[in-house]
Design goal:
Strand order of the largest sheet: 1-4-3-2
CATH topology of the largest domain: 2,3-Dihydroxybiphenyl 1,2-Dioxygenase, domain 1
CATH class of the largest domain: Alpha Beta
Shape: globular
Strand content: 25-35%
CATH architecture of the largest domain: Roll
Number of strands: 8
Helix content: 10-25%
Oligomer: single chain
Length: about 150
């Protein structure tokens, strides 16, 4: 019998995926794919275990440049307990994407040009710059960069 009480440091290799429930799959696919520019997995890129759900429009999968998978699960009846997205309704606070400091202002322009609701920012801190805004379901997303 194994009495190990901890997973040793280094055994967990990386974040495999992040799963979000979304009310409007098309709006969320547009947000994460077209506005944020994440690559949507299609065809043979879709994991075999999800192919049927993707074909039925119930799931969409995106990948970040570092290989983290973002899974969107369609839940058409989903609604936050409070219609005001500034009132966090989950234990997860936000999803943060890193960007080259030279491209930060361009990303802010994209957010503004798409009339996304901005929660905070842009802000400048000793750790860098950031802007916080909401996805179509009111989940906060951040785009941040290291200091120049």
């Amino acid at each position: 019998m194994n009495n190990q009480k901890t997973i040793p440091i280094g055994h967990l290799r990386k974040i495999h995926h992040i799963a979000l429930n979304v009310a409007d799959m098309q709006a969320s696919r547009h947000f994460y794919g077209n506005i944020l520019g994440l690559h949507e997995l299609i065809g043979d890129e879709v994991p075999e275990t999800l192919k049927q759900l993707v074909a039925e429009g119930k799931v969409a999968n995106f990948t970040t440049p570092d290989g983290t998978i973002l899974d969107l699960f369609g839940e058409p009846e989903l609604s936050p307990p409070d219609p005001d997205p500034s009132k966090s309704f989950t234990r997860a606070y936000h999803l943060a994407f890193d960007i080259d400091p030279k491209l930060f202002d361009q990303a802010v322009d994209v957010i503004r040009n798409n009339n996304l609701i901005i929660a905070h920012g842009p802000v400048t801190r000793p750790t860098g710059r950031g802007i916080y805004f909401y996805d179509p379901d009111g989940f906060m997303v951040e785009i941040r960069c290291d200091p120049d």
